Amino acid sequence: MARMLSPYLHEGQEVLDLGCGSGLVGKAFEELGQVNNLIFDGVDFSANMLVKAKQRGYRNLVCANLSQEDLASAVWDDLGTEKKYSTLVSVGVYGDFLNPVDLEYAFNLADKHSVVAVAGREAIHPFIPSVFKIFGFEVVHSEKGVAHYEPDSSNCVKNPEAFFTSLLGSGSLLNPEQVGVNYSYFIGKR
C-alpha cells in the first residue's frame, strides 16, 4: 500500500490512518524512507493499539468506532478542531471487519481534493469502486495482491504484526506453513 500511495503524497502531508492499530502504515512508509516527510494521525477502537501507534511516531490519536455515523464529530471533538485531511488510508478494516459502505463516515473527514487508499480482502473488490463513485472519488489505481500469515491452531493469524506487514507489501512468504489471503488495493482521488 505504501508503495502504491507514495506518488500521490507530498512532503509534510497529513495522513489519517483509519483503523491504525499499532501504526504499521506509518512503519511501511518509514521503511520506504518517507516517514519524516509525512504526518500521521490515527483512529482506532483499541486504546492499547493507539499507545503502540504513538510509540511509532503518530501525532494525534483518537479512540473511536469507525462504523459510527458521527465518526467525524468524534474525531473533531477529540482533536478540538473540525480538521479535514488530504489523505485517508485504511488497511485491513473495510471488508475485513467493517462493511465497505461504512467508508461514508470516514469520507466526512476528507477535504474536497483528497486521496483515499483502502486495502481489504478481495471480496471488497466489486464494492469499493461504487462506494468511491457515490462519494465523489475516482479510482486512479487498483490492484490485487496476497497477504501472508502463519496460522495458529484455530487458523487465526498467529502473528498479526507480521500479517499486516505482509499486507502492506513489505513482507514475504517466509515458510511453507504460511497461508495467503487475497487482497484488493484501491486509491481514489477527488
Q: How far do the termini sit from each other? A: 19 Å
CATH architecture: 3-Layer(aba) Sandwich
CATH class: Alpha Beta
Question: What is the H level of CATH, i.e. the homologous superfamily?
Answer: Vaccinia Virus protein VP39
Which structural class should the secondary elements be placed in?
alpha/beta
Structural features:
alpha/beta, seven-stranded mixed β-sheet, 26% helix, globular
Structure description:
The chain is an alpha/beta fold. Helices cover 26% and strands 31% of the residues. The protein contains 7 helices and 7 strands, in the order αβαβαβαβαβαβαβ. The protein has helices spanning 2-5, 24-31, 47-55, 71-79, 103-107, 128-134, 160-167; strands at 13-18, 38-44, 61-63, 85-91, 110-121, 138-149, 179-189. A 7-stranded mixed β-sheet has the order 3-2-1-4-5-7-6, sandwiched between helices. α3 links the parallel β2 and β3. The longest helix is centred in the N-terminal third of the chain and has 9 residues, at 47-55. The protein is globular, with a radius of gyration of 16 Å. The model is unreliable at 170-176 (pLDDT under 50).
